[in-house]
Amino acid sequence: MDMSDRPVPEGLRGELHADEPMSRHVSWRAGGRVRAFYQPADVLDLCEFLRTRPADEPVLFVGLGSNLLVRDGGFEGSVVFTHHALIGIEVESEVATPHGMLAFRAGSGVPAPHLARFVAKHGGAGAEWMAGVPGTVGGALAMNAGCYGGETWNHVIAVETVDREGHLRHRTPADFEIGYRHVASHSGADEWFVSGVFGFQPGEERAAMLHIKELLQKRVATQPLNLPNAGSVFRNPEGDHAARLIESCGLKGFTVGGAQVSPKHANFIVNVGEASARDIETVIDHVHATVRAKTGVDLVREVRIVGKA
Ligand SMILES: Cc1cc2nc3c(=O)[nH]c(=O)nc-3n(C[C@H](O)[C@H](O)[C@H](O)COP(=O)(O)OP(=O)(O)OC[C@H]3O[C@@H](n4cnc5c(N)ncnc54)[C@H](O)[C@@H]3O)c2cc1C
Prior knowledge:
The chain is about 25% helix and about 30% strand. With about 300 residues, the chain is α+β, with helices and mostly antiparallel strands. The strands form six sheets. Strands 6, 7, 8, 11, 12 and 15 form a six-stranded antiparallel β-sheet that branches. The protein has a four-stranded mixed β-sheet with strand order 1-2-5-3, with no helix packed on it. Helix 2 (about 110-120) packs antiparallel against helix 4. Flavin-adenine dinucleotide binds near residues 60 and 135.
């Protein structure tokens, strides 16, 4: 019997679901199933779970699935679902910070908008942009999420990671190669984020909350937030905007099945009905090929795609 068909193995305290539809856990509300879906009870339970998995089994950490598509044929491995699990958040007074900065520790499953408000409420400034990124702290660390001039790793003092054997490690930014929407561990081994310590300048709560409100209003005005989507599909090429290039190719409104290039924001693909992962990927491929043919720009995908077609 496949392990994923069993109840939670002895010694584990989290929830294990076999054959879980990932459309329930990704913001596109589309895509295939995963063989084993585990929601750990806490960090130690997560370590224990990783130790139970076969060494060659693919493991995928998922936060709020706001940058992720699992193909319709599904993902033959384990998903670790951090949201609802690794959710501790606190002002960190033990960590030395440069230039009078305030430090905050947040678990990987904490939603980034929650961290933004927590920092603001505790007298920190500079996290406001996170309020509009509908993912988790772990997803923001993995993607180096950013917007409106802010970028996740500009604020990282340290992170805690876990490896396949369930070993926890403290790491600093020097342990990673960090770029635009790109983060890779120098160690090269499979390692996932458990928590992060972030530094922010002192600020004023009212000003930060107002800034959050303004940035969110800007998003509502420019992004198709009423339909399932995964934010920007492509990275912005240097000195330009992917949305401008896509729009210039006349692709706004281009539709395959239930997937459509948003008429409101050309770098968003929206699920207008019962989109399959294949519909979404077909639109992505078409946009990529058309922009390359018409403008010569080879757009790089920002959203992560995993699994079998
Ligand atoms: C409406 C909308 C607006 C958006 N706006 C922005 C924006 O302004 N700027 C921006 O950068 N992004 C934006 N995004 C994209 C997305 O929200 C971010 O990339 C976010 O950081 C993803 O977090 P997540 O928890 O949803 O990650 P997921 O989608 O769950 O995962 C994304 C990737 O991160 C990996 N990952 C997740 N958690 C961990 C972990 N704990 N350890 C290691 N790897 C992990 C996953 O395996 C996957 O490869 C937007 C998305 C939407 C839907």
